[in-house]
Amino acid sequence: MSTSTAAGRKPGAGAPKAATAGGNEAKRAKSVLGGSKYSQKQLWFGALAWVIAIVFVAPYIEMAITALRPKDELTGDGYVPSKFEWANFVDVWDKSTLGDNLKVSLLVAGMSTLLVLVVSLPAAYYTARKRFRGRGVFLMLVLVTQMFQPTSLLVGLYREFYILDLLDSYWALVLVNGAFNLAFSVWILTAYFSAIPVELEEAAMIDGASRLGALRRVTLPLAMPGIVTAVIFTFIAAWNEFTVALVLVTTPDKQPLTVGINSFLGAYRVEWQYLFAGSVVAIVPVVILFAYIEKHVVSGLTAGSVK
Amino acid sequence: MAETAVRRAPSVGTRVKKALAPLPWIGPAVLLIGLVVLWPVVVMVWSSFQRIRRTGIVVGPNGTDNYTKLFDEPDFVAVLWNTVVWVLVVVAVTLVLSLFLAQLFNQHFPGRRFARWAMIVPWAASVFMTAVVFKWMLHETHGVINTLMVDLHLMDAGKDWLGKPSTAMPWMMAVAVFVSLPFTTYTLLAGLQTVPGEVYEAARIDGASTWRTYLSITLPLLKPAILVAVVINLINVFNSFPIIWAMTNGGPGYETATTTVFMYQLKASDIGESAAMSVANFAMIIILVAFFLVVSRGNKETDR
């Protein structure tokens, strides 16, 4: 697997940027040949692509519509409610534990992200700069964490945190989300650090900066896009995590939002409008964040498995 | 001075120092992985050979009884079969659809950027919440899918799609495909960007048909991207718990459960047996991925 696809490219190649160059050239060539900006064929392709795009979004539109339905219209069969009940988005927090669940989700996702950063920044920097003994073993270990899913270790994790007396605690979730999202961060950050010439740091040190000063003033700012990607990705992954939280945390007001919504489903009468109001609040911000890092996600998810 | 240092055999002290130098940098990562990824593997395997009370207290060694009990479960074979169908169908359908989608979204058309963004939504959104909205849309009397199909005269009345395994499984597989498509398509799109435009130019001059060009140029060049996408999908789809849990809870009975869901259900009654199921799951994933990699490597050799 040594061809230079985006997936096959080593992280060191400054991964995300160069990828689109070839595509752009082809595009330009086409539009010159076509005369007008788009050919008939391209417009048909576009129409099909747009239909598919709408299919991808449709379930979430239905989610939002349901969240805005007045209670007595949930059982009706109108596609759109007679009026939008914006109060659902206010009431949901009073009439359920979802307010607490939201706080837990913020706390767990925030702490997990911090943990990943603190652990992966030095590891990625060192791995990018030095060829030390055990480097291969370390990278292998990181890859293994990416290949294992917490779900497949569920019983082991449950037993471990039972032994550690950390069941029903945020810390268990922070540790699990931190560990299993470490790999993505390490790949992305190693790629960015490798792409920054060591000479830049040396130059800063000649100018009188200390090693740490050079890191802080030169390297970290240049690696910032990678850091932002790692932060957003980890946050979203921890935010969406469901299975481990379902097993490890049983007290309703200590559960994150995903699990809190699960308990709605168990109710005798499911209050769909509140359930989906909570879901919309959980989904909208992460979709926006994800759109921001979209270009780098594939390389982070696939970098390790190709080498 | 540096030269003499190199020539002289380094003393034990400097060698130890050198070996320990990476520790402050990568130590925390290794510690975290050891604590939260490797230790649970050990605990899981160990637990699968113990008799464990429901309260969590370990009574004592249990030999292979947990495994015997698991394999003797009346539903075990059916659950195993569900898992095989689930993984193979979802991963295969996802790959085929994504190959098509990647090709389509790689075309030049108005608003391509925004159309691609639409695909991000199911990727970024919680899989569990996505499954819940599908459950709602499939509601027998007021789900929008039933309403729509009745209005289009495709059916006379709404169906309880998730009540019967024969219709619940296909719908859940559809949801699993739906949430796997974005990642897979994006991975293939990234692969497509690396195919140099001149190659297509040359093929066109040679008079190769579009289909022929796709089969003999695009697909082979996409192979590394396809491999990675399939491996990651195999792992994700095998472990896909939230979809089934949200939509059917694995029921009625265990009829729509995969081994991952079964493991969770067993946990409530017998943790030792559940651990045995986990170990079996773990082994299956490793075998599955290894098998796939060996098969695809084999093809690669014959390609040359």
Write a concise synopsis of the structure shown:
Chain B: Keywords: Cell membrane, Membrane, Transmembrane, Transmembrane helix, Transport. The complex is a heterodimer of chains A (307) and B (304). Chain A is mostly helical and 307 residues long.
Give an overview of the whole structure:
With 307 residues, chain A is an all-alpha fold. Chain A has a domain at 96-306: MetI-like (MetI-like fold, Orthogonal Bundle), CATH 1.10.3720.10. Chain A is 72% helix and 0% strand. Chain A has 15 helices and no strands. Chain A has helices spanning 15-18, 21-34, 40-67, 88-94, 98-129, 135-147, 154-163, 170-180, 182-195, 198-206, 211-222, 224-240, 243-248, 257-265, 272-306. In chain A, α5 (98-129) runs antiparallel to α12 (224-240), α9 packs antiparallel against α12 and α12 packs across α15. Chain A is globular. Chain B has 14 helices and two strands. In chain B, α4 packs across α14 and α6 packs across α9 (165-193). Residues 1-5 of chain B have low confidence and may be disordered. Chain B has a two-stranded antiparallel sheet. Chain B has two domains: 2-47, no CATH class; 74-303, Orthogonal Bundle (MetI-like fold), CATH 1.10.3720. Chain B is mainly α and 304 residues long. Classes of the chains: A mainly alpha (307), B mainly alpha (304). At the A-B interface, α2, α3, α5, α6 and α7 of A face α3, α5, α6, α7 and α9 of B.
